[in-house]
Amino acid sequence: MASQVNPPRGMRDFLPAEKAQRERVLSVIRSVYSTHGFDEIETPVMEESARLHSGLGGDNEKLSYGILKRGLTTDDLHAAKDALELADLGLRFDLTVPLARFYATNQAALPSVFRAIQIGSVWRAERPQKGRYRQFIQCDIDIIGEKGVLAEVELITATVATLSSLGIDGCTIRINDRRLLTSMLTVFGFPPSEHASVLITIDKLDKLGHDGVITELRDRAYPAGPIDALEAFFRRPQTMEFNPFGERAIRKALPEGADETAIAALVALAEALGDVSSLVFDPFLVRGMGYYTGTIFEVTHPSLGYSLAGGGRYDGMIGRFLGGDVPAVGFSVGFERIVDLVSLEGSATDDAVALLHDDDVPASVLVALKTGLIAQGSRVRLERKPRNLKPLFAQLAASGFQRVATVTADSTLESLEFRDLG
Fold first, then answer.
1. What is the domain range of residue 301?
2. What pTM, to 2 d.p., does this model score?
3. Cα(118)–Cα(42) distance, rounded to whole angstroms?
4. How many H helices and E strands in the chain?
5. Rounded-to-integer distance, Cα 163 and Cα 300, Å
6. Are 313 and 363 within one domain?
7. What tens digit of pLDDT does each residue of 342-360 get?
8. Which one of 309, 338, 367 terminates a domain?
9. CA-CA distance, 118 to 21, in Å (whole number)?
10. What does the pLDDT look like over 380-412, one tens digit per residue?
11. What are the tens digits of pLDDT across the range 296-331?
12. Domain end: 312, 338, 364, which one?
């Protein structure tokens, strides 16, 4: 019995038609990002293990793949107290940590305000399930060196334009600030040492609801007073605001004593954007990455139960490498989540033709015909003529071929008669 030859769990093969569709979507994303003034860079798929496990990646650090040091001995394996002692490199789990290292390495060759595009695969040891893979593509744009709200405005504008160009409309952008989250927890009475773990539970609000979050916090034996305060805040009477991302809406959604600097930053962002019809202030939006220091955002769609894009400000990360903080903010589109939502046709101007031939047609004739058609601007494939043409035609059409012609030993470019694969 033949053994299975599937790819590793959580990783996928892509057939030609699937690969072509993915490349079309990537082409649109790259094009829109570029028109908004961003430049594409590339970083290695591996980074130093210590850098990937520096406490900046949140729970994703636990999901990273390590690469064993060369020349390890059996004694080394037995002596290691932690698996990380055996790895000196690791596969990147996102594109932000590599970007911070890239900027620190190449700062002298970059503009004072650097707008970066990064598109590439990342790896996480996830439990594979629908929409969640161990290898997947991220599409990031980041602005480094701009400390004002202009950076957030540019990122939000470029991301909305990208989704619109892909035909994904009707999205909502949820916005918060990590400083508001920590200040709210302080107001409720949670000590700073517990903020990180409490936020892990609050981040489950969409799945658990208010009651579920309160129950989990009580089960984890946090002090009753702060939990009671949070529960009372959840249950307070609320009314809808006409403008869900204006100063009035922001203040109504927060307890007294929330961080005024963060509130001012969000109000300034709303004023700078002008059109905030697709924006909503969400005081309990968390985003789990430990490197966020300010504004955070997430794109959702009413027909989907998951986010399509997300990001935020991470002013403290690059300073780890340079010794001084550098303002930075990024937005990442979840490529794997959107690629199945859109259908982009190949360019109508592309002429893709297939030449069908029997075994007795000389290779020299086939090559001459193919070369001639390519010189005229066509994409050309040679196909041995089967008895049943229907499956072949379906396969060619799926691969983007539009016309076919049958070739004989006497065929010339002028004598070829094409038929459409419509």
1. 16-338
2. 0.86
3. 6
4. 15, 15
5. 11
6. no
7. 877 665 457 899 999 999 9
8. 338
9. 20
10. 999 999 989 999 999 888 888 899 999 999 999
11. 999 998 877 778 999 999 998 888 888 788 999 999
12. 338
For residue 138, give both structure tokens. Answer: 């991220």
**Which residues touch 392 (CB under 8 Å, ≥6 apart)?**
383, 386
**Side-chain half-sphere CA neighbours of 304 within 13 A:** 18
Is the distance from CB of 307 to CB of 300 less than 8 angstroms?
yes
Co-location of 261 and 139 in the same domain = yes
Closest Cα partner for 287 from 202, 381, 162?
Answer: 202
Inter-CA distances, 19 with 39, 352, 421, Å: 24, 17, 21
Q: What is the 3-state secondary structure (H, E, C) of 118-152?
A: EEEEEECCCCCECCECCEEEEEEEEEECCCCCHHH
CATH number of the domain within which 37 lies: 3.30.930.10
Contact 30, 119 (CB under 8 A): yes
221 to 194, 197, 206, 235: CA distances (angstroms): 12, 12, 22, 21
Structural domains counted in the chain:
2
